[in-house]
Structures
1.
Amino acid sequence: MAFFTHHVCRALSSSAVRNVVIKHVTIIGGGQMGAGIAQVAASTGHSVTLVDTNTDILKAAVKGIEGNLKRMVKKKFADKPEAGEEFIQKALQNVSTSTDAGSVVQGSDLVLEAIVENLKVKQDLFSGLDKLAPAHTIFASNTSSLSITDIASSTNRLDRFGGLHFFNPVPLMRLVEVIATSATSQETFDSLMNFSKMLGKTSVSCKDTPGFIVNRLLLPYIMEAFRMYERGDGSKEDIDVAMKLGCGYPMGPFELSDYVGLDTMKFIMDGWSADNPDNPIFAQSEMLNKMIAEGKLGKKTGEGFYKYK
Ligand SMILES: CC(=O)CC(=O)SCCNC(=O)CCNC(=O)[C@H](O)C(C)(C)COP(=O)(O)OP(=O)(O)OC[C@H]1O[C@@H](n2cnc3c(N)ncnc32)[C@H](O)[C@@H]1OP(=O)(O)O
Ligand SMILES: NC(=O)C1=CN([C@@H]2O[C@H](COP(=O)(O)OP(=O)(O)OC[C@H]3O[C@@H](n4cnc5c(N)ncnc54)[C@H](O)[C@@H]3O)[C@@H](O)[C@H]2O)C=CC1
């Protein structure tokens, strides 16, 4: 019986996802990442519903999108201000907001999640939406560090579930990591690749391994910078200058951590250190824990390693 059910589901679901061209997108989480992804999707002609539990965050997200579009247009349409204004209006018309994901997923080709980096919270979200979204709808997570397989396991659409990992700030960073699990269908993977291309991004294909490509290399480097600073082997300012001028990185590790958000950094490292307690690369940073306890989460709270007020 289980064999039969499995095969019927597989047949139904693969026909359901054939040729999915993603036009209507629900993005859940209106923070830095969700707002950035919404901006890019709306400016490339997709209709976007941005969802957050907090209406103030949604208002701030739309305001931020408008501000960013204005900045972009100033340069891109320098000698055609009217065309620039039309571009902004078109993009903004493509964005609507909601506090109730369940009521908006009906019309979506893609539901992309960019909420807090917590497995249980992401699983609860997708398990609820799985019952409400149409059969063809693809689900994807923008997780930095969690297993896509684990998140997808809360749903019955394993073949229509993948990872779409964007980089901060989304409008400027050109990469998207596209992650297929062992259950992701080829059609779903192709749809996610095509969608990334439509957004004007370059994609790389990743396996569902912790941190995919970029974060698996980036986080150990940043954590080593924290340890260097904690040992007193360099000031944070000198370490940042050294990596910028010595390696040509646009930001040093402390500036970048403030930019990403120290809470997100900790969520990532806590997950990995729990899974690999003996690996010193993933060891806890007392300094990071203390800063988070003091509410210093980086740029978003006005203070992290540096002050932004
Ligand atoms: C944690 C994870 O899971 C994964 C991650 O994301 S890891 C983090 C990855 N991101 C990085 O590594 C970012 C590293 N930093 C950088 O690349 C650069 O510092 C940066 C792109 C953020 C800013 O570049 P910069 O040249 O120093 O900044 P700045 O001069 O302020 O901005 C450059 C232009 O972009 C525009 N811009 C800045 N932020 C923008 C945004 N969010 N949206 C639209 N435009 C923006 C500015 O208006 C400016 O435009 P003009 O040249 O027309 O004035
Ligand atoms: N900050 C970064 O540089 C990057 C973060 N990511 C990942 O993207 C995700 C989001 O990160 P950020 O945007 O930085 O976080 P953020 O803290 O700026 O935004 C998260 C938003 O999700 C909302 N939210 C939480 N639970 C919700 C729910 N159940 N339903 C609807 N909304 C909910 C919150 O109100 C908040 O506005 C995380 O998984 C993170 O690991 C991925 C790439 C880069």
2.
Amino acid sequence: MSAQSFGCDFGTSSIKIYSKESDTIYCEKNMVAIEEKKGMISYGDEAFEMHEKAPSNIEVLYPMSFGTVASITYMQEFLKAFLETHTKGSLKGAEFVVALPTDVQDRVFSTLIQGTGLKSRNIQMIDKPVAAGLGLGLDVTQSQGIMIVDVGADTTEISILSLGGTVTSKLIKNGGNKIDEAIANAIRREYGYFIGNKTAEILKNELGYQPGDTTSKREICGRNMALGLPALLEITADFVANAIAENLKSIVDAIKVILERTPPELGVDIIRNGIFLTGGVANLKGLDKLIADATNIKVNLVDKPEECVARGLERVIKEKKFKNLTFVTKEQNYN
Ligand SMILES: Nc1ncnc2c1ncn2[C@@H]1O[C@H](COP(=O)(O)OP(=O)(O)OP(=O)(O)O)[C@@H](O)[C@H]1O
């Protein structure tokens, strides 16, 4: 591959790009800030900072939604600006390997990259679960069953891999964002306080799923809806656990459905090796135990699970033997 090769995981809440040139995974919030008349004024972590704080003439939005591109124009502007910031020299002729989520059409991403005007030389796709498997350090090309549960912001992707391919996989529209929403709704119902998504996310990330734990607490600021004034409120881990239980149950149920559909020959490997939990929500305290208890299968966790797919893309770019796991979109038409 040429000097400029990028491995792209276009997540709904954050974009992760591996750059071969700098041998680094760059990760930023996948957000853009748009000002009336001026267009995109900011992107990434800086745009996220403006989220829920910006005046009415500035709209802060996610260009991706449920694993696919919601705003191609802004995603293209973001990608171009992101690559220009993080790379030296020309981007002309760069090569891309893109992680393709289950149920998303590959041409969405080739159209996206081609439309940036970067004159890319080659755009390869790889199934996102296969990239996650490589990122876990597994040899996905072997004839053994591997179960990966990737819980991201908008989606949860549950997949069984074998021989370098996806044997079965299911994408459900449930993840960190729905969990944050459930926390905000419960606080509104129970306490009559309005809280923003960022505050709900803090509660989720800090308190996790710890039913019965009334000792761990977090103070937050919300708006008392009766008085219309901001006020402080203390939330326990037990309250958060109750608020998110239904969301987690739907993830666990989907895992069980996939296990039921798994051929017994591969099921043996999964029981032996365990389920691999990836995606940012794999960091949720107590989720691994919940899944292990419900399935009677051990659950493996890794460091920085949200970067697993990008680490897999890095291996595809660096290790020739994994090139045959990638494929090219039929419609590709290079400039
Ligand atoms: N410590 C934590 N506990 C619980 N959730 C966490 C933690 N850290 C991050 N998350 C959540 O992980 C999610 C982001 O994960 P990830 O980066 O894998 O998603 P994505 O790739 O952007 O989304 P998708 O896979 O849906 O396209 C967010 O909802 C974030 O709040």
